Amino acid sequence: RIYMTPQDFLESVIESEPKPRLKRRKLTSYEVDNIRVLTPGMPDNDSNLFRNCGSRGLISYSEYLFLLTILIKPTSGFRIAFSMLDQDGNHKIDKDEFKILETIFSCASKERSNSDSESADHYLQRDDEVDTSLLVHFFGKQGDRELKYEDFFKFMDNLQTEVLNMEFGEFSKGANSISELDFARILLRYTFLNSEDYDSILNRLYGRLEEERGISFQEFKDFCQFLNNLDDFQIAMRMYTLADKAITQEEFSRAVYICTGKQLSKHIVQTVFQIFDEDGDGLLSYQEFVAIMKDRVHRGLKSYSRQEGWEGFKHCIRQEMKS
Q: How many CB atoms are closer than 10 A to CB 269?
């Protein structure tokens, strides 16, 4: 069986090119059992969990897809699925029910991707008797505990915070804020813009900045968590503008609040408009903004068809309808 470590997972979603491994480690039964013993339980869950576990942990392929979905999708879908599996209404699920929840979201993630290696995926996803670190963390070393939704929500929020904190720290270098230019670099790092468009956006922002106030981590986190609700934002904008017209900063802020319940700071909204408002008229084409930010949300992992012509066009349409 092939597994990844918590450190592998973090690198896969943050690094543009994860560090190469010399070879795969082959674990003995003793080492697997030792990892299980050392895996922290839910009371020790915090926003350093994956970094603290490092290479001492086992994550399966289906869990990788599940964790990736946590990073790129709104929590509302998980709450609904959790409630559907919670048949007695006590806001708890057991290990077998959680595996169903995990399968639902990992399969949906796999369908959104364009994988030509189905046989390899099948090999990676085969069930076995090893309890992974995620299962031990949620359900204890004996696997007989139940998972509360409030604890699961805490896990999701901490995982998002941990990944965002690592991205933020790469540019903040220990400071409490990052520059507006670095904020733009983070937003654009996973997009498929060519180098000319990328440089043009950064130069445009640099020319519009009157002073550097900086972006705090909380501002950065609030905005990135809003990006997980882009589908709802797009629907809200379509209903509001009807004719798909450009929007003002006030309209943008109101739509974000409606979709997430969070009020973005005026400064970060102003910075976003300085980044994406091409002609400087104070209005934003939300469709172009959403198109670029969807690449950011998928962290460069969204696949694109290499097919050409009519078949390639139809394939792209099908993939977009799934995403």
A: 20
Under the banding of pLDDT at 50, 70 and 90, the label for residue 79 is confident
Which stretches of the chain are assigned E, i.e. beta strand? 92-93, 147-148, 177-178, 215-216
Asked whether the CA dihedral 141, 41, 49, 323 is positive or negative, the reply is: positive
Closest by Cα among 252, 240, 239 to 282: 252
Q: Give residue-wise pLDDT tens across range 9-53.
A: 999 898 866 677 777 888 999 999 999 999 999 999 999 999 999
pLDDT tens track for 48-77: 999 999 999 999 999 999 999 899 888 888
pLDDT class of 86 with cuts at 50, 70, 90: confident
Look at the block and give the residue holding tokens 């139940």.
Answer: 146
Measured in residues, the chain has a length of 323
Q: Which token pair is 194?
A: 């060519």
The residue type found at 168 is F
Phi, psi (degrees; rounded to nearest 5) at 139: -120, 10
Instruction: Name 213's Cβ contacts closer than 8 Å, sequence gap at least 6.
Output: 180, 267
Q: How far apart are the first and last CA of the chain?
A: 29
